[in-house]
Design goal:
Blueprint: E1 18-24, E2 30-35, E3 41-47, E4 58-63, E5 69-82, E6 85-94, E7 97-108, E8 118-123, E9 138-146, E10 149-158, E11 164-174, E12 177-178, E13 183-186, E14 198-208, E15 211-218, E16 226-233, E17 245-246, E18 261-270, E19 276-283, E20 299-304, E21 306-307, E22 313-314
């Protein structure tokens, strides 16, 4: 694990924290949250640098319900500061129906997200002219800003025939309500997105030199897990799926020689020097006993992002 004086890249950084999300806030602090192995609560930690986060005190800010909505599979929280307040977006199921995964929103009633208190706003609300209301398996929501507007991107399974997890996008009206109908952004088209399960999930957005790069995770959560990428010009119509370019091949995959298995579900931040950093999770071994979801050893890791001669991000283990 890293200590206060050094950062080691592409090695376990914060142990047993999957789906890691790091926000560098305007106060200069780094805020970290992630899925915990028990999938039963939401935790936050804060530090003045990435190197200090592993040793920072972790605070439980919300605990699952005993039954009903938000009582099982508390997954992939993200913390955002929007519209003048702190919000946490996460997915959760129900004890009575563990795969009834839906997207939920918490709003902090104070200025300090580690102190709270946090108010439950319920499920994310679709736009008024959308006939659906997140009544399908839905998770892994992220939020990004472009040209003064906020956009909500999430994974949702379609229920006709084979269960397929697609990514959808909509513009936001407020912190817990969408302004537009959902638009299909990407579906598992390629063989590397269909190993074990047909999956596109875990979106994250990187902004660089007038372009938006949206990474996502594909296939099942074993060593098959990998990352794909879409890109778009910041001046294009963000809600037009034809304006996005999808990479034919994954941008990050398992590297057995480095003992990095199933890299994915990342977020982006910057270090104290302004270097773009990807935060992702991976295991240190390939063979998993039982259900991969019950294996706790998806560790958060850091990667320095390089850029090629065309300005496109390069994700590598160097």
């Amino acid at each position: 694990m890293a200590n206060n004086n050094e950062l080691k890249y592409n090695e376990p950084w914060i142990l047993q924290r999957a789906d890691p999300y790091v926000l560098k806030h305007t106060d200069g602090c780094y805020y970290f949250t992630a899925s915990v192995p028990e999938y039963d609560k939401i935790v936050l930690r804060r530090a003045g640098s990435l190197a200090e986060l592993p040793d920072a005190e972790e605070k439980t800010v919300w605990v699952r319900h005993e039954s009903g909505p938000m009582s099982k599979h508390i997954w992939a929280p993200e913390i955002h500061y929007l519209f003048g307040k702190w919000y946490i977006y996460f997915a959760g199921g129900e004890q009575e129906n563990i795969w009834k995964i839906r997207p939920y929103v918490l709003e902090c009633q104070g200025e300090d997200p580690l102190q709270g208190p946090w108010k439950e706003l319920g499920k994310m609300q679709r736009s008024d002219d959308d006939e659906f209301s997140f009544e399908a398996f839905s998770l892994d929501a992220t939020i990004f800003e472009n040209k003064g507007s906020y956009y909500y991107v999430w994974a949702e399974k379609v229920s006709v025939g084979r269960q397929i997890s697609n990514l959808y996008i909509a513009k936001m009206q407020g912190a817990n309500k969408l302004a537009t109908q959902q638009v299909l952004l990407t579906t598992p088209d390629y063989d590397w997105e269909r190993r074990g399960y047909w999956v596109n999930e875990g979106p994250a957005v990187l902004k660089k030199d007038g372009k938006l790069y949206l990474t996502y995770s594909a296939s099942d959560t074993s060593s098959n897990y990998c990352m794909g990428m879409l890109s778009i010009d910041e001046n294009a119509d963000i809600l037009d799926p034809r304006a996005w370019k999808k990479e034919r091949y994954p941008v990050l995959t398992t590297d057995a020689s480095r003992e990095i298995y199933g890299p994915g579900h990342n977020s982006f931040t910057k270090d104290e020097n302004g270097q773009d950093i990807m935060v992702y999770h991976a295991r240190s071994y390939k063979d998993i006993v039982g259900d991969p979801l019950n294996d706790p050893n998806r560790h958060a890791r850091l990667m320095k992002i390089r850029y090629d001669e065309n300005g496109k991000p390069v994700f590598g283990y160097q």
